[in-house]
Structures are given as C-alpha cells and as structure tokens.
Amino acid sequence: MKNRIPLILFLIAISFQVQLNSQPKHSQTTLIQNVWILDGTGSSAKKGAVRIKGNSIVAIGNLTPLLGESVIDGKNRYLTPGFIDSHSHHFGSLKKEPSGIAMTNQGITTIIIGQDGDSYEMDSLIHFFKQYPIAVNVASYTGHSSLREKIMGEKNLFRNATVAEVDQMKMLLEEDLKKGSLGLSTGLEYEAAFYSSKEEVVALAQLTAKYKGRYISHIRSEDIKLNDAIQEIIDIGKITGMPVKLSHIKIANKDDWGNAPLIVDQLNAARAKGVDITADVYPYNFWNSTLRVLFPDRDYTNKKSAELAVNKLFDPNESVLVRFAPQPSYAGKTIAAIAKERKESTAETLMQLIQIAADFKTANPTAGGIEALAGKSMKDSDVSKFIQWEHANICSDGAAGGHPRGYGAFTRVLGKYVREQQLLSLTEAIHKMTGLTAQQLGIKKRGKIAVGYFADLVLLDPSTVNDLATIENGKALSTGIEQVWVNGKMVYNMQKATGELPGSLIKRN
Ligand SMILES: [Zn+2]
Predict the structure, then answer these.
(1) CA angle, residues 258, 264, 265, in degrees to nearest 5
(2) How many whole angstroms from 187 Cα to the centroid of ligand 1?
(3) ipTM of the complex
(4) What is the pLDDT of residue 1?
C-alpha cells in the first residue's frame, strides 16, 4: 500500500493538469463589464456586461471574466450601439484622416453617404475600401444628380431628362443597386436636380423599389414651397410602396415658423394611409449650404427675391459665411457685417456674393466648394418638435469641418436635448441614433446590442456628454464619449483615435 498515496496524488495531479489544459484560452475575447446597457431598441437600460469576440457581440448579461480575457471596466457608464449617421458628408475627409475622429468623437460608427443626390459609384467605394482602411463603416445611396451628370453632362442639367436619358440613368442605377447601394437619393433643391420632373424621379424610384431599395431626399424646397415638396416625397412613397425618408427636416421660411406640429400631422396622416415616410433631423437652428438655396426660383439677380431671402429665409445678422474662395477675408463674417463693409444693403450683398462666386467658378472651372453659408434659418421649437417625432432619427448632415454638426450633432442631442432640456429620454435618443435608424434604412445586424450583432459600441457618460464644436471652432471634440468600438475594435479612447481602422463597406441586404 506504500505506493497508494503517491499514485492518488499523481492521478489528482494529472487530472488537474488536464483541467488546466482544457480550460479554453480567451485571449481573443473582450469583456466590457460594469455597464448600463442601452441596447438601442428603446428598452430601458440594464446593468450587465457585453462580451466581444472578433467583430461580433457573443454574450450579454451577468458575465464574469474568462481566463485570459481582456476586461474593460465600464465604471457604471452607459454602453450603447454605435451611432448611425443617416445623412453624412464626412466621407471626403476619410482618405486623409482615416481615423474619422469627427465622427467617432460623437459616437458615430457608421456613416450613410451618397446624400442630396450626390454619390460615388459602388464600384469606386469597393475599390476605395481595398486601398484605404478607415475607422468607420460606410453605406451609400446612389445619387440622382450624379446619374444626371453622367448621362446629361454637367452643363446640361437645367431641364427635364428625356425618356432615353432616364433609361440610361436606370441602367447605371441598376448596376449600383446590384452592388449594394441602399437605394436612391435626391437633392431636388439643388440646380443639378431642381429642373427634373417628378416623373423622372418616380421612374428611378420605381426601379429602386423593384430592388427593395429605399428613397432618401433633400426635398425640392425647405422654405416657400415646403408643403409641395413634402407632398412630392409622400407621393413617391405612395406610388412606389417603398420606405421614403425626408432628409434633415426643417422649416426655413420665417412665415411658417412654428408649423412643425402641422407638418408632423401631415406626415403622420400619410403614414396612416400606408406610406412608410420617416425623416432625419440635426439639432441646430442653422444650416450649412450654398448661398444659392436662398433663391427659391433660382433668380439670383432679382432684387425682390434677394429681399425675400434676407427678410424671410435667413437672418443676415446671425448667418456666417463660412467659406468664400474669391475673397477669403469674408469667411467667418456675417452677411450683415460683409454688407456693412461693402456699404451695401444685405440683399444687394447677397446678390453680389453669388455673382462673385459664379465669376470665380467661370475663371476656375475645377474649383469646388467655393462658398458656403451657415444660414440661421430655423426656429428652435420646430427643431425640437422634429427631434421628438417618433419616426425621426438623428443625423449630422455634417462634414469634417465647417458647420459644428460635423463634430457635435449627436453629442449635442445627448447634452442639450436630453440632459439639459429633457425633451426626450436618453433611451429614446439612443434609439433614434441606433436601432430606429438601422430599421428605417434596412441595415442589418447593427444599431442594436444583441448576440450575433456587429460589435459597434459606444461607452458614454450621460452626465458629461456634450458637444463643444461651434462655428468658430468647428473641430472641438465632444465630451462624455469615452470609448468607441467598430467591428469589435476600439477606435476611440478618451478623446483620442486609437489608430485601429476596422471600418467596412455595408451593402444593402
Ligand atoms: Zn441636404
């Protein structure tokens, strides 16, 4: 029996060794623990932890760290899905700044591009992603104006397209839809599409519907013909039966300020009749666009129209010319200040600036983005009403610079509208930035914290989250967005990009 005890010890030792070896290694998983999980569906927050493996969420709940797993202490902050920006102009900056801090600092992990009728072909986006890794995900619509430019020529857009031209546009659109474009976008207020007929748009929209795509539109007027323009998008939704989204909904005509409840009623009435219409909205009372949108009839030398613009369509005292290539010293000044400098009325200055910009364009045909105005044009209560509409999601409409929305739209909603004004709950706001957006755009496996979903995540502190970007300092980083993950990789950590570039091209599915 002498050997008995050592043998038992030996067996115990062996079995212990086997146990150790069979204990799986979890060095490839990350546990974010000690967080309030707001899953993006609109359900209230639950305390718990989320486990990431590779690019996906693999477990949620009351989880304890596995052996070898990397663990992040969420310190009772909120963990939400990554924000989806349904109307973004950030893409142009990503080649130079692939870390996309303009987006990640406000919690955005997916940008939807191809807006306002302007898009890149899906082929060129696919090619871009092979060459240039970036931090955020991208999905794109196919732009109506881009189709027009390719088929009709850049100088020949100021008319309705012929039947043959529409057929050619359809072929290009179809190619893009087959390659994963989300659908059709229009920018009917801009000259490149302003002269297109509703029938032209409907023909393209019907093809989009056939492919189960969606329609998104900067509508034909945001000011004096707003109601007609809204009716047009409702009609397109009705005729095609596909979901339609009204881009950056606003009321830019002083005479109609305060009418947001009526417009919401109009949209709800269309929904009640079966039209799947939604909207996106950014949280500012000023837009960023070309001076030319201030002339609804595109009559840039008509004094009466200029007077209508300065009296009804924007406030020259509070609207800043953010860019003006022909005379860079005007940038940063209000239209009223420039008028004073030029010893003109504001209406006269408005016409002159447009003329100077047009002459500059003639002399420099390849120049783009010659002028831009931050136009104070909306009433706060209308903006609030639209943000609160249950079928509206949050967008930035921003770029990496210029209007502060490019760096702070989402954090502004969380700071100003949720915490300060309590116009909506944190849960509702997060839903409008994530789950609702994904659902309305048809984006699968994102916008929600759920097992099997992509690990696009934001760790934020609701008590400090805020936007700091202003017109003067458009690139100030937000506070309160502590960490951001895209496809399982941390891309942003305490106001710094990590250098990870895990973004992917999202295709319609
Ligand atoms: Zn737009």
Answers:
(1) 105
(2) 6
(3) 0.95
(4) 41
Domain(s) labelled CATH 2.30.40.10 in the chain stretch across 27-80+447-463+479-496
Span from the CA of 88 to the centroid of ligand 1 (angstroms): 9
pLDDT value at 6 more than 80: no
For 176-232, write each residue's pLDDT tens digit. Answer: 999 999 999 999 999 999 999 999 999 999 999 999 999 999 999 999 999 999 999
Can you give the pLDDT at residue 2?
43
Burial 426-445 (b: 16+ CB within 10 A, else e): bbbbbbbbbbbbbbbbbbee
Q: How far is the CA of 370 from the centre of ligand 1 (A)?
A: 17
Neighbours of ion ligand 1 (CB under 5 A): 116, 218
Expressed in angstroms and rounded, the spacing between residue 22 Cα and the centre of ligand 1 is 57
Burial of 322: CB neighbours in 10 Å, binned 0-12, 13-18, 19+: buried
Q: How long is the chain?
A: 509
The CATH number of the structural domain formed by 27-80+447-463+479-496 is 2.30.40.10
- Ligand 1 mean position, distance from CA 397 (Å): 7
Distance 9 CA to ligand 1 centre (A): 75
Q: 284 CA distance to ligand 1 centroid (A)?
A: 14
Is the predicted pLDDT of residue 25 greater than 80, yes or no?
no
Ranges in the chain annotated CATH 3.20.20.140: 83-284+378-446
Q: Which of 293, 282, 178, 275 is nearest to 225 (CA)?
A: 293
Q: Residue 329: pLDDT above 50?
A: yes
Which listed CATH number (3.30.460.40, 3.20.20.140, 2.40.170.20, 3.10.180.10) goes with 83-284+378-446? 3.20.20.140
Q: What is the pLDDT of residue 368?
A: 87
- Cα 116 to averaged position of ligand 1 atoms, centre (Å): 5
